[in-house]
Write a structure and sequence with these properties.
By secondary structure, the chain is of the alpha/beta class. 40% of the residues lie in helices and 16% in strands. Bound molecules: 5-S-methyl-1-O-phosphono-5-thio-D-ribulose.
């Protein structure tokens, strides 16, 4: 079953509205790049690779509507659209990676192509980014499935599935690949408070694929590990620093501590576009703080007293020493990470 969270159709961007899932399948049609910015901010589309794809398509859409006569003005306007996207969500490295790619493509062709052609080049590059992401996910799945044995029970957090990418998924892509291979697996799905990406999105994807799974609240993870029900934890990543420290959905760090205590491996699955070698360690990764209302309410209804304040960091940092391996489209790396991340980042594959 293929899930397409974002597509480009007749010069519009069609986004599957992840806020309404799983109860309603709704699409948001964007004909203006500002609508795409809003969709990213409001998490109509979310997940690091999907945000990158949405921003690339959004830049192409915005560029399409620019009406200027000089290349200089065109570049200035595209740069300002890129800046708008850069201000949507701060943590996912893939967003900035995709924007850099769009900027680079434009600058490279600026002196040799006319403005109408440059617009087409930007659309083509954004669609490349989308297609590549699916190919990259499938490759991550093919490497990662080797870590899963028949009968394994896997705990995952948030949604790192088809919905969080252009399709197929990273952490969930590995689970999907193991299932497609015929391995009998069972997935424990953290509900992932406060936005419930696990309960609403991961459980939805697993149901559609017919992959056996059980939903738990985030606070149950330690107990089921103690009961011997979990063989490994696999999650995605929003940004991986040069030393391997990893930002991912809030709660991942707690899982990593619990996993280490119970001698359970924790694997991070991510494309190399999530690696940020400009950041030495996790302490410099920008962590998004979202509206406290996400915490004081549950599924749209206030559950805390009116005057109660809440703190809502959307991500946390898992230190490299708690990560058993990082699974990318270029292979699997194990600690110590610094040199291997550098090598894998530079490694060329036929995918990009
Ligand atoms: O706030 P979200 O839903 O965008 O957070 C998403 C995550 O933390 C995912 O685990 C991460 O982006 C990896 S998705 C392949």
């Amino acid at each position: 079953m293929e899930i397409h969270p974002i597509t480009w159709r007749k010069n519009k961007i069609i986004i599957l509205d992840q806020r309404s899932l799983p109860t309603r399948i709704r699409y948001k049609r964007c004909s203006d790049h500002r609508e795409v910015c809003t969709a990213i901010k409001e998490m109509t589309i979310r997940g690091a690779p999907a945000i990158g794809v949405a921003a690339a398509l959004g830049v192409a859409l915005g560029a399409m509507h620019i009406k200027v006569y000089s290349h200089e003005e065109f570049l200035k306007k595209v740069e300002s659209i890129i800046d708008e996207f850069a201000n949507t969500r701060p943590t996912a490295r893939n967003l900035f990676w995709a924007l850099d790619r769009m900027r680079h493509t434009l600058r490279e062709k600026l002196l040799t192509a006319g403005i109408p052609e440059l617009k087409k080049i930007l659309i083509k590059e954004a669609l490349h980014i989308l297609e590549e992401d699916i190919a990259v996910n499938i490759k991550i799945g093919s490497y990662g499935r080797s870590l899963i044995k028949n009968g394994d029970r896997i705990l995952t957090h948030c949604n790192a599935g088809a919905l969080a990418t252009a399709g197929y998924g990273t952490a969930l892509g590995i689970i999907r690949a193991a299932h497609e291979e015929g391995k009998k697996i069972h997935v424990y799905v953290d509900e992932t408070r406060p936005v419930l990406q696990g309960a609403r999105l991961t459980a939805w994807e697993l149901s559609k694929e017919g992959i056996p799974h059980t939903l738990i609240t985030d606070s149950m993870a330690g107990f089921i590990m103690k009961q011997g029900k979990v063989h490994m934890v696999i999650t995605g990543a929003d940004r991986i620093a040069a030393n391997g420290d990893t930002a991912n959905k809030i709660g991942t760090y707690s899982l990593a501590v619990l996993a280490r205590h119970h001698s359970i491996p924790l694997y991070i699955a991510a494309p190399t576009s999530t690696i940020d070698l400009t950041i030495p360690d996790g302490s410099s990764i920008p962590i998004e703080e979202r509206d406290p209302k996400e915490v004081t309410s549950f599924y749209g209804r206030r559950c805390a007293p009116k005057k109660t304040k809440a703190y809502n960091p959307a991500f946390d940092i898992t230190p490299a020493e708690l990560i058993s391996a990082i699974i990318t489209e270029k292979g699997i790396i194990t600690p110590p990470y610094s040199e291997k991340l550098l090598e894998i980042h530079e490694k060329k594959t036929g995918l990009c």
